[in-house]
Amino acid sequence: LPHGLQPDAVTESICGYCATGCSLRVHLRAGEAVNLSADTNYPVNLGMACPKGWEALAPLRAADRATTPLLRGPDGELHSVSWDEALRTMVERFRGITERDSAEALAWLSTGQIPCEEMAFLGALAKFGMGMVHGDGNTRQCMATAATAYKQAFGFDAPPYTYADFEESDVLVLVGSNLCIAHPILWQRIMRNRRQPEIIVLDPRCTETAMAATRHLPLRPKSDLALLYGVARLLIENGWLDTGFIEKHTNGFEDFKAFLLAGPYALSEVNAASGLDEASILSLARSIGSGKRVSLWWTMGVNQSYEGTRTAQALINLALMTGNIGKPGTGPNSITGQCNAMGSRLFSNSTNLLGGHRFDREEDRAKISALLGIPESSIPTRDSWAYDRILEGAERGEIKGLWIVATNTAHSWCDQQRLRRVREGLDFLVVQDMYADTETARLADLVLPAAGWGEKDGTFINSERRIGRIRKVSRAPGQALADFHIFQLVAHYWGCGEPFSNWDSPETVFRMLTAVSRGQPCDISGISGYAMIESNGGIQWPLRESETGFSTERRLFADGKFFHPDGRARFLFDAPQAMPEPPDGDYPFILLTGRGTSSQWHTQTRTSKSPVLRKLYPENPYIEVHPSDADRLGLRAGESVIVESRRGQMSAAVHVTTTVPGGSVFVPMHYPAVNRLTLSSFDPHSRQPSYKACAVHLSRIRNA
Ligand code: SF4
């Protein structure tokens, strides 16, 4: 390193991108980060990091950071103002809405990217301090399905696994999960498996993961639920069941069995539905039914679907039928997306949840009131609307004030054209983010400049329930402040007084959360503070006060006891539904969207600031088209096409490839225009958008 960059200290912090939760060693000089490397001692990443992790400091140093509050003036432009003016204006406008309409006309939308302490602060401030009822996180777009599936099946949102399970399975089934690029370090964990495992990928696309697997089953788009039911029926027909486990630890198996035997799930019918040959389906069932240690993993291919919850539960059902849960190398395991989506799931207080407490129960409200020193009367008894309902409320003019924190709704939400109507329905939009140039911040009336990852302290919770420390390793630029500090200021300007004056540091709030969680399935009352997390390489929840020794890798349900009052897991199922917008003569292709690379993250808000990451990925949108479709339409590789759905259109360069099946096309989600095409269609249980299947048309761009 050049002399000025030689570090004089090193510290560790969990990466701020994906939910793998790698630890990075940050090299400091005079307290400022100058470089970083992967942490070799952390039990998650074992010395590895992906390109985003290696480039984690670049977004902090971007020249276009938001450095002062910006308020839209009478000329329609955003202008720098002081924090005092910004907060006075926010409070005045939001109070005006509250007085004219009601506090129900205010809402917030947040993220899975800020620490637990900030999420909890935002939820408590908005609900208990400012009187809001409605608020949700962008985790609705990625993890709501998994959370709902677990909650209904196990009695709590509880991914049961530990990452060591990747290394201890004999059979790993990955469904709708492109682990190689979405969670590359977790793929490396599979590569460390010395048991020579069978790795089976169920995905319509021949993804990087499908190519690297031992078997790829290219099922038809959205035939996964029928296929999984067919596999369940084969398990029954062939006696590949753990009947002891089913009888002792589950409810509803006989109903599920009757449903499978009465429905169209015979081998020939599932072959017709999925397009997979009968031998492959039977072989999949045999691998699951006769494997010693079988683990079933899923991500967005399942979650982002109009029937995602039941599909996730179909995977849970397979694990319950075969007793593959609570033991090394097993589990129905959802892999989370964002770095702190799990923290949001437990502590965000968005729709109704604070450490497992529900506000529709009086005893829970009383407990929260006593623990946080908040009058019980200020705890709303109603659940919040989910993300889609909040935006619909704004479209109808029922939500008038919206506070968006660290998320880029105008890029990432489906059926983007509707966002214009949302904006028109709002009287005042506040966006709190690191940059003022996101698609969402550009729509704001007020931008609050926020510190990013690396500029603040707190904790994240990763996919395997591991709570890890993040640290301030750099000063935020200009007048940008940590979200925690912004929430403190809003509480002050709103006049919340007690009890928010006690929320004086992230660690104080973390201790409150440990108290709030006591006695809940996510009980972390055994964690005394940040020092304990740091010295143990992170700690997986739960850790109760009474637990003395604990292992660094812990699974749930080793005793077969689930979180429903009777201690039993549930078999849950419904008949598969028709695709909401199937291809037809006008729109003949199924559009699949998803992650395109390990070097970009979601809406590229941060990753686009790294010249290194930008070089690793095409700047302009591309679309993957199967050669047979390209031939039929006369498309050449590299030429631009218009991709059009019933809602909007975009242009993209043609990439001719056999990785997509004929009749389907794929566009990465990192390009903003892709959500002009996607559909307002949601899983009915989780309200998660179905990003994976809508109908589109391709046409050549003709030169004049
Ligand atoms: Fe690890 Fe995910 Fe960060 Fe990459 S983005 S370094 S895989 S936590």
Automatic annotation (TrEMBL):
The keyword Glycoprotein does not apply. One of its GO terms (biological process) is cellular respiration. Residues 8-64 form the 4Fe-4S Mo/W bis-MGD-type domain. Keywords: 4Fe-4S, Iron, Iron-sulfur, Metal-binding, Molybdenum, Nitrate assimilation, Oxidoreductase. It holds the Pfam family Molybdop_Fe4S4. GO terms for cellular component: membrane. CDD domains: MopB_CT_Nitrate-R-NapA-like, MopB_Nitrate-R-NapA-like. The keyword Iron-sulfur applies. InterPro entries: Asp_de-COase-like_dom_sf, CT_Nitrate-R-NapA-like, MoPterin_dinucl-bd_dom, Mopterin_OxRdtase, Mopterin_OxRdtase_4Fe-4S_dom, Prok_molybdopt-oxidoreductase. Signal peptide: none annotated. Its cofactor is [4Fe-4S] cluster; Mo-bis(molybdopterin guanine dinucleotide). One of its GO terms (molecular function) is 4 iron, 4 sulfur cluster binding. Belongs to the prokaryotic molybdopterin-containing oxidoreductase family. NasA/NapA/NarB subfamily. This is Nitrate reductase.
